[in-house]
Automatic annotation (TrEMBL):
Keywords: Signal. The keyword Signal applies. Residues 1-23 form the signal peptide. The keyword Signal applies. Pfam families: OpuAC. Residues 52-324 form the ABC-type glycine betaine transport system substrate-binding domain. This is Osmoprotectant transport system substrate-binding protein. It comes from the Bacteria.
């Protein structure tokens, strides 16, 4: 079942109440209603004060907005009043809301926190070690990282499904080095082409020298915008391999195969709930709430949810609502 509130009436109500501007931070909450839900696997927290309120924030791309709505629904089922500060424009503003205490909860990626917020030059490929490192470092910022989920939104290289056999059963990044040079054709974004965890160090890690006749000659590398990289990889021209994000719904819709990062080059970007430490101390049951949700966020599930928004044009709150019902985390009120 899909929750479909009358969004025009919802917007008018919000405007009438003057709720679209958050005093002091200059940001705006998402203009949507959070539907009421009943308890499922997530139970109502006992002895919760009537005024128990949690503010949730997220960045402004599809995956993060869906995750933010999932958090709002989970907290509603647990009995909290919620404030929707999802869809914040950019990583740093969302992080700023958490660090200044204007938001209580967000979903964050371990690698992003380590490299972007905490200023380290290299990520940690091991999932657990990366999470432990950011958890320890962020405790000094008044933020607590709960257990990470299996979802790992990291970089990867993908090839069209039908080319896997054509290229001798290529399955791993190491397999690229075994191909004839003319088949080592790669499409990437300009950013990935220059990142510290991007194309050059990836090729170096796999022993494929860039710009060399026995590696990947420059003419084998093409730069495109993100969408065009997916399209080029799907066509197989001008490249067999394209840079992708592992939770992008286009991987499934276009029929792409993600190559295994068998040398574990790319940093871990596992998602985890991050809470303001003082909020978690006040409501320790929040850990139980999110421990029900996080394990269900997988790469495959996130690709499915992202595709519903990006390709089908569905609203993130509707997609989140269906996810919560389907997974038995909440029930209809």
């Amino acid at each position: 079942m899909t929750f479909r509130p009358d969004r025009r009436l919802a917007m008018k109500a919000l405007l009438g109440a003057g709720l679209l501007t958050v005093a002091g931070c200059g940001l705006q909450p998402a203009a949507s209603l959070v539907p009421q839900v009943g308890p499922g696997a997530i139970r109502r927290v006992e002895d919760l004060p009537d005024d128990a309120t949690i503010t949730v924030t997220s960045k402004n791309f599809t995956e993060q907005i869906i995750q933010g709505k999932i958090a709002l629904l989970a907290l509603t089922a647990a009995g909290f009043d919620v404030v929707d500060l999802t869809n914040v424009p950019g990583s740093q503003p969302a992080r700023g809301l958490m660090e200044t205490g204007k938001a209580d909860m967000t979903w964050e990626y371990t690698g992003t926190a380590w490299l972007t917020y905490l200023g380290h030059e290299k990520g940690i490929p091991d999932r657990t070690e990366q999470w432990e490192a950011v958890k320890e470092a962020d405790s000094a910022n008044g933020l607590t990282w709960l257990e990470p989920g299996p979802l790992n939104n990291t970089y990867a290289m993908a090839v069209r499904d039908e080319a896997v056999d054509e290229l001798g059963g290529v399955k791993t990044l190491s397999d690229i080095a075994e191909l004839p040079v003319e088949d080592r054709t790669i499409c990437v974004e300009a950013e990935f082409n220059s990142r510290q965890d991007g194309l050059d160090p990836m090729l170096e890690a796999y022993g494929i020298p860039r710009g060399q006749p026995d590696g990947v000659p420059e003419e084998n590398i093409s730069l495109f915008d993100t969408g065009a990289v997916y399209t080029a990889a799907d066509r197989g021209t001008p490249c067999n391999f394209g840079e992708v994000f592992t939770t992008d719904g286009r991987i499934d819709s276009l029929g792409l195969t993600v190559l295994e990062d068998d040398q574990r080059f790319f940093p871990s970007y596992n998602v985890a709930p991050v809470l303001k430490t003082s909020t978690l101390e006040e409501y320790p049951s929040l850990a139980d709430v999110f421990n029900e949700v996080t394990p269900k966020l997988t790469d495959e599930k996130m690709r499915e949810l992202n595709l519903r928004v990006d390709d089908n044009g569905e609203e993130p709150i509707d997609v989140a609502y269906d996810f919560m019902l389907d997974e038995g985390l909440v029930t209809e009120p």
